[in-house]
Amino acid sequence: MKYALYPGCVMPTEQYAYEMSIREILPRLDFELIDLKNFSCCGEPIKSVNQMLTLTLSARNIAIAEKEGLDIFAPCPMCHLALSEAKRILDTDSEMKKRVNEKLSDEELEYTGNSDILSILDVLYDKIGVEKIKNAVKKPFKNIKAATHYGCHLIRPSEIGRSDDSENPQKMEEILKSIGINTEYYPEKLDCCGGLLTANLPESALTKTGQKLQKVQEYGFDLFVDVCPWCHRQYDSKQTKAGETVATKLDVPVFYLTQLIGMSMSISNNKLGLEMNLSPINKISGGNK
Amino acid sequence: MSNKIGVFVCHCGINIAQMVDVKELVEYAKRLDGVAVSKDYKYMCSDVGAKLIKSSIKKDKLDGVVIACCSPRMHEHTFRGVVEDGGINAFNLEIANIREQCSWAHDDKEGATQKAKSLVRGAVAKARLLEPLEKSKINVTPNALVVGGGIAGIQSALDIAEKGHKVYLVEKTPSLGGRMAQLDKTFPTLDCSGCILTPKMMEAANHPNIELLSYSEVIEVQGSIGNYNVKIKKKARYVDFDKCTGCGDCIDACRMKGHVPSDFDENIGKRSAIYMPFPQAVPLKCTVDPDYCLMLTKGKCGTGPLCIKACEAGAIDFKQKDEEIEIKVGVIVVATGYDLMNPESIYEYGYSKSLDVITSLQMERFINSSGPTTGDILRPSNGEKPKSITYILCVGSRDETENPWCCRIGCMSALKQMYLLKEKLGDEVELNICYMDIRSFGKGYEEFYRKIRGMNTNFFRGRPSEVRPDGDKLNIDIFDTTTNKLFEIKTDLVVLVPALVARLDANDFARILRISQSADGFYLEAHPKLRPVDTFTNGIFIAGCCQAPKDIQDSVAQASGAASRATNILSKKELEAEPLVSCVDEDLCSGCGTCISVCSYNAIELVEDKDGKKRAKVNEALCMGCGACAASCPSGAMQQKGFKDKQLKPMIEETL
């Protein structure tokens, strides 16, 4: 299985740990990542200003992978949403496809619709499969109860087809079970991380983050797991600040799902970028509490 | 073969005449082959028009008639009668539709007149080749089958029985009563549901013309209007029907007492494995639940079944077997009711997350004094009285992702329950309701709504995004569109009002009956306005919520309507069968069976002739004349009377 890795912007400029852990674990699960040149921004951050430009940027990135005959794996859920939405528009609106392809022709690119767009859950749950992950585990976790966080972009809007059920997503739970981690429903599971409010309402953004982690801590979860670089930045990097907004000392270990899988495969901490996690992850050591 | 054809052109006021030159058309028709006379009149369907046709048939000794007028769907039936009165066979008539398919469709008079000429030319060509057809007679079995013992079925059965016909009333569960038996009071009059229903149940059970088949299911239906053969499975009760006195001693004795979820109580109460669904059950007999009885599931029950010891009448019989009976009826009334949508499918409303999220039908069982809490309103999680109750309407109704239709009873049933809850819990209880629109359309409904609005209640107009458990409370965020404000409700008990959907087995039963369903799964009426209780299958009628969600008032009215339509048939000794059915040219038929696979009415079978060759044979009593077999026949052996290839092909040639 060969796939084009579409890194996006946040992961390679700031959330290195996500990329490192992805590059460590996926090849071990027979999922080969190909790096392509010339990828650009997915366009999502400027969608509210210029939709046509967003669409063209997304189409451009897909077209680069199509040229190589590869499906795209976009680990960042926001990029995954932008690319998926573009694909849906271009596959159903031939007029729009023509307009976009006119713009892409300057670079001798063409959007055809032949490549699939995969998210991290599509890859782990649907392509690789829980059984295969389970077989790759060397040291399963024990007695760990995790709170899962899917983030908004990965599961919404359901009309365009997202990676899991928008109201009751379960794939992350299934994957965690295969590496020995228990999960439990908690009412705030689908709450937003607040990250997208950062630019104009930074205080509110942190409050959203703090409120969710506060509850997670209250419920006695051992760790918090996410799959989105934007969410991770809120919950991991800004945890202390977020705690201040809700007047609570927050002390929740936050991991990428891919880091936890790597730990269960006994991959060393530095290869998984664990030293870059700013939350108190030392409470959880590889494979055990 | 007709060679003295009369062509009658209708002006239809100005509907035809303003776009078709009628005089020119009449003159043109006179010159066509086989036409003896051609006339026009302003309204051919009027009495004067009919007289014109009849006198012309006699005077000009016509043997065929073409009428150029509106669609045959409008007046073909009438004109067949006119032609027959005039003295020729009713099927030597052909209609040329020059209104819907000509004058109404065009705005160029010259072109339209040319087209009308083509249509009339084609019709005359066909009329020349039409054959007289005879209507055969069908004897009518004067009995009725009513399927479903809810209020609609009971009403239909009583109405038909009162007219003097024998009625078999089949009910799937152990007792009559249906959904209405589960309700406490009914809106908007607040009649006690049981008090008005029980006498009806008794009346049906005791009526000399009604044979009640409770705990029974219809498993096979053969035949057609006037003569249906129906197989019914009488499920084993494991209780001797005649010996059981309904004393209920066995119920108290049962080892499983308090362990079996009661479906009648919407699974909030527990019963025994031997049970009566509710105290006023009709018939008043016990039934053993084969899914829970230890004798029936494990083969033994402790040291011996306690029910047998307790039963003084010696009625319990674990050796009983299901029984099949066959009955003959002339008509069938289907009144199989509805299911409530399982609100688990809307995960965010928390039905699967919290015990304190219940459905409106569960609330009905809480309110009911013969329910599992004897009428006390208690939170299922802790058994305490709720201080705040919140209703959410349209759960899965008017929702594109679930069911787009309105359930028609949700608003009123919630308002009624709110009234009853105020009565039971006093003004201390906070009552909230989240609604999209309050639909209080029936007689006295709006007045009832106003009464509730005047009480101490909170109405929020909007759809909550989520019901979120928070400690021992439930939180609801709702954006109220009347005040443009976000409200945060903290409540003890959430009542979901789920959509009404077709019965889980509606598809299977439709197939048994060979009746149609609409896209929503409910049974389809033959015409939404003019034949609301008929189905497309002659002799089968529908009543109550199996057709679409409705309240008790409408269900009862519809049930009486269905009964009346049914007795129209039962009151006749014999019926005339439509002769426009399929027939087989045996010399051409190869016995391939294609026609059988496309026939929706089981009207064709393969029979072997004396040479051992297989041929298709049409049962004319079952054939509905849809034409599917004729269209699918690869050799042209299958033909439809009145629409044979040798009649249609010349018509097409002439028209073009």
Order of neighbouring strands in the sheet with most strands of chain B: 10-7-6-18-29
**Which outline of chain B best applies?**
globular
CATH architecture tag of the largest domain in chain A: 3-Layer(aba) Sandwich
Quaternary structure classification: heterodimer
**CATH class label of the largest domain in chain B:** Alpha Beta
What is the CATH domain class of the largest domain in chain A?
Alpha Beta
Q: What are the segments of chain A in which pLDDT stays under 50 over at least 5 consecutive residues?
A: none
Largest sheet of chain B: 5 strands, parallel
How far apart the termini of chain A lie comes to 34 Å
Strand numbers in spatial order across the main sheet of chain A: 2-1-3-4
Chain-averaged pLDDT of chain A: 95
Fold-level CATH name of the largest domain in chain A: Rossmann fold
Percent in strands of chain A = 5-15%
Distance between the termini of chain B: 22 Å
CATH homologous superfamily label of the largest domain in chain B: FAD/NAD(P)-binding domain
Which percent bin holds the helix content of chain A? 40-55%
